Amino acid sequence: MSARYSAARSSLRTAVIMLVFTLVFTAAMAFIHQLTRPAIEASELQEKMRLINEVLPPGSYDNALLDDSVALGPTPALGLARGGTVYRARLGGEAAALVLEAEAPDGYAGRIQLVLAVAADGRIGGVRVTAHKETPGLGDYIDPRKDRNKERPWIGQFNGAGFDGIARADWKVKRDGGVFDAPTGATISARAVTHATARALAWTLAHRDALFAAAAGDTLDAPKEPTP
Amino acid sequence: MNLQRFRENAWNGLWKQNPGLVQILGLCPILAISTSMVNAVSLGLATVLVMAVVNFTIASLRNFIPFEIRIPVFVLIIAALVTMVDLAFNAWLHDLYLVLGIFIPLITTNCIVLARVEAYAAKNDPLSSTVDGLMMGFGLVWVLAVLGGLRELIGSGTLLSGIDMIVPGLSAIQLFGEDYPGFLLAILPPGAFFALGVLIAAFNWINQRAGEHRHARTDDAAEAPAAG
To answer: What is the mean pLDDT of residues A91-113?
Structure first.
């Protein structure tokens, strides 16, 4: 009887200690989280602006880009299962460019997240990879910071590309009969980014007017396909 | 803690009980990240920091942790500390975070942290435990540096590629010239196993030779009086 009593007591005691440790360390984490949040949010914003500046020259628009955005519902054409954001760049009130997120579902190791800018003339301002899990040292050249070719990074091929210069059917890597280079041995990453970029460009061109017409802060749920 | 203890900890961490070569712990990040020297050393340095902090905290709390539930408490503390280190780095050392950041969460998958806590920090004072964590971490750093350097050299013919992200202005060393075709296997995961195998063999060979030397010397010493 007393053995059972002490077993119950000892498990209660360890349970309470476990609970205390959990509470203390959760509180410590919450405290650090609160403490670091302003700094982290500021640098996230800065990072976002830096990224946008890479795909869209800062002088090519004059509106507050981050405030002029349209939310997207789930958009399979862009690979966005949970929706995303489109930023609208204007110059003197005229439509200048759209900055949008897209995702390639078929990277070598999962999804590749992209940001691209599409200028009003239908050409791509630039493409950047924001998150990926491609093999370090092999498939991560899709991120220009990891690309060994610093003068002409792989992703720079998309700068200024549009369907007027390159037919939609040629938006493939050279190995598949298209026009885009891809390093030997790591074609899958290049193929995924190329296809996702082409899809995103086609989608943007089809929905450009609707995107610019929407009020800032609106959500465009499953934008209507253009009538053929 | 005295000098003798410090030297013992250092010797164990850096050579005798080296986490990468003798304890063979933390293989998951070691093999995944050691595709280049810079990546490998970055992960190593993040591990040094986390191990020192974790060992210190757990050694300080060791008298309050019941033996029966020590593993869940250790895991809780390690996870909480890694999260806090991650947040603190992100907020206050953002430039360094951009380089080391992706490696910090990876450390939670490294069983060397839990292993040192269980084997050392749970039984020793905070100061020795911190030194143990630091030394085990630095033991991992040099193994990772050699492993990463070996794989990078054979795989892509360069050394220190990506150094410009840590020290701007420096660039990678091209050892085999621009037209080195690369040896993909060294970069892929199997290459990590081969390289680690070679490294362990070399380590054992050095130890064996050192052992023979010592034997030879003690034999001499034993024979000397007989001869005299």
So the answer is: 90
In this complex, which of A21, A39, A148 lies closest to B76 when CB atoms are compared? A21
Q: How far is A136 from chain B (nearest CA, A)?
A: 7
Burial of B98 (0-12, 13-18, 19+ CB in 10 A): middle
Candidate from B69, B76, B184 with C-beta closest to A185: B184
Place of tokens 């999804």: A111
Output the pLDDT for position B225: 44
- At A1, which helix (H) or strand (E)? none
Interface pTM, i.e. ipTM = 0.74
Per-residue pLDDT tens digits for B84-116: 988 888 888 777 787 777 778 777 777 888 888
Round to whole Å and give the CA distance between B177 and B169: 20
Nearest to A129 by CA among A162, A110, A104: A104
Q: Interface of chain A against chain B, CB under 8 Å?
A: 13-14, 17-18, 21-22, 25-26, 28-29, 32-33, 35-37, 39-40, 43, 135-138, 145-146, 148, 185
Name the residue ranges covered by the structural domains of chain A: 1-55, 60-220
**Domain limits, chain B:** 3-227
